[in-house]
Amino acid sequence: MAWKRYHDSSMHPPAIPARRRPKPGALPPPWVLLNDRAYLAGESNHTTAVSRTRHGDEIQATLFLADPPLVSHFFISCAAEFGCEPRILYTEANLVLLTLVLGDPYNAIDPRKNDFYVYEVGVRVVIMVYDF
Asked: Where is the composition biased (Basic and acidic residues) (predicted)?
């Protein structure tokens, strides 16, 4: 997979110190600061959810929570080539709207060529929204 279409830093998420991560099985923090760009990494944990792109490729979305004031991050992995970094468009309570641009980076300017997903914290499946 070629990663030349985005910043090198998109491949290297910051480490979250263990003392600032929520403990396994603990309730998530009541609020978090969330990066609006997702990292391109195959990391997974108990929050990993799976779906498919419009072309049938498997996609995984993983949320790495950090207690505020640290920033929480999404990690996205997919066999298809990304056109640009996945983005978080909107959040509400435990729902996150993600968008992915696959293939040509110019697809980003046409929402009909983007894949949209609703990630629900605590659910292992990401719902793809085909028509926006």
From this structure: 1-10
Closest C-alpha among 64, 59, 65 to residue 77: 59
* pLDDT for 34: 93
Question: What's the domain range around 84?
Answer: 31-129
Give buried/exposed letters for 12-45 (b at 16+ CB in 10 A, else e): ebeebeeeebeeeeeeeeeebebbebbbbbeeee
Nearest in space to 38 (alpha carbons), one of 80, 95, 104, 100: 100
- The full 3-state SS of 51-113, as one line of letters, equals EECCCCCEEEEEEECCCCCCEEEEEEEECCCECCCCEEEEEECCEEEEEEEECCHHHHHCHHH
Instruction: Identify the pLDDT of residue 1.
Output: 45
pLDDT in tens, 2-19: 445 666 656 566 666 655
